[in-house]
Amino acid sequence: MKIFILDPPSVFQPKTQSFQYPGHNKDYGIEQDFHIWLKKQKNLVTNNPTEADWHYLPVYWTRWHINHGFAEHGEGLEELQAGVDKIVIDDSRTFTITQFDGGILINGGKMTLFTAARTINEGIDIPILCSTHRKPPINPKKRYLASFNGSFTTHPIRVEMEQRFKTNPGVLIQGGLPTRFYKRWLWAKNFNLNTMASYVALCPRGTSCSSFRFFEAMQLGTAPCLVGDVDVRPFKKFIPWDEFSYYAATVDDLEKLLKNLDKKDAIKKGKKAYRYWKNELYYQKWCKYVIKELEEMGSKSNA
After folding, report:
1. Which residue of 45, 62, 99, 298 pairs with 116 in a disulfide if CB–CB is 3.0 to 4.6 A?
2. 164 - beta bridge partners?
3. Residues 269, 223 contacting (CB under 8 angstroms)
4. Which residues form the Exostosin GT47 domain (predicted)?
């Protein structure tokens, strides 16, 4: 397989973005990460668009939309649409990487979208990654069956989860806590330590179907549980997610899962989740799965 990298004007690849999330994250994301990775794959890249099986469109969608007021009231979309229309040679052979909630927010035609934060838009699910969290020198003991720190306002399932478990002493549900690692970590009241002290990290969907928490939990060595109506764990054809993570479509499903949880198995899953995150899913590691997806799509089209 050969890939031709399209060359958008630099204005569509902003150097920075005005807002960082999560708060500890550096101004870097999967859109830049894949672009950097692909340029190093000399065996995949071709300078001839005609001989290429796929064309890659390296627009930095997230930085663009954030810098244009999150595309509120359509800000920046007309310019972006016109620019993309000029760049794309064949939309049916074009793919792009996006993290922004809702995807590219313009008409991509038949373009293939790899997206980390689906809302109602279609796309092939990929990891939603951020900078690593610091860890204490010694892992905290397990204190909670499961835990969640964060806002409840981004999706009704979070409110339902908070109401269901607020009287359960084994499940820690807290809102509004920061995700930075404080030096006064003995308080044990921040995301990092609560996650590491849990058998399961609860990762309910928010505005998008995915959650940074899912992959943060993997980095912290705790088995993540995605909670939401859509299972967006990425690359399911190639990654055995059930071996090191959980999924609950509803809060009822989550309650049953936690009631029947095998703690020893959860610890094993957490350790395996960390290894898989480190070796397969962190920056520069996950990109190869995009190629696997494209190869499979190509084999189907040629069948």
Report:
1. 99
2. none
3. yes
4. 124-252
Burial 5-31 (b: 16+ CB within 10 A, else e): bbebeeebebeebeebebebeeebbbb
Domains and CATH numbers, the chain: 3-127+284-301 (no CATH), 144-281 (3.40.50.2000)
Pair of tokens at residue 81? 């649409």
How far apart (Å, rounded) are the C-alpha atoms in residues 102 and 185? 36
Q: What pTM value is reported for the model?
A: 0.92
Residue type, 125: D
Query: Taking the mean position of all CA atoms in its chain, how far away is CA 259?
Result: 28
Residues 152 and 158 sit within 8 Å (Cβ to Cβ) = yes
| Under 8 Å between Cβ of 178 and 133 | no
pLDDT tens digits in sequence order for the chain, 303 residues long: 999 999 999 999 999 999 888 878 899 999 999 999 999 999 999 999 999 999 999 999 999 999 999 999 999 999 999 999 999 999 999 999 999 998 999 999 999 999 999 988 889 999 999 999 888 888 899 999 999 988 888 899 999 999 999 999 999 998 765 444 443 344 334 788 899 999 999 999 999 999 999 999 999 999 999 999 999 999 999 999 999 999 999 999 999 999 999 999 999 999 999 999 999 999 999 999 999 999 999 854 454
The 144-149 sheet, strands edge to edge: 171-174, 144-149, 198-204, 223-227, 246-248
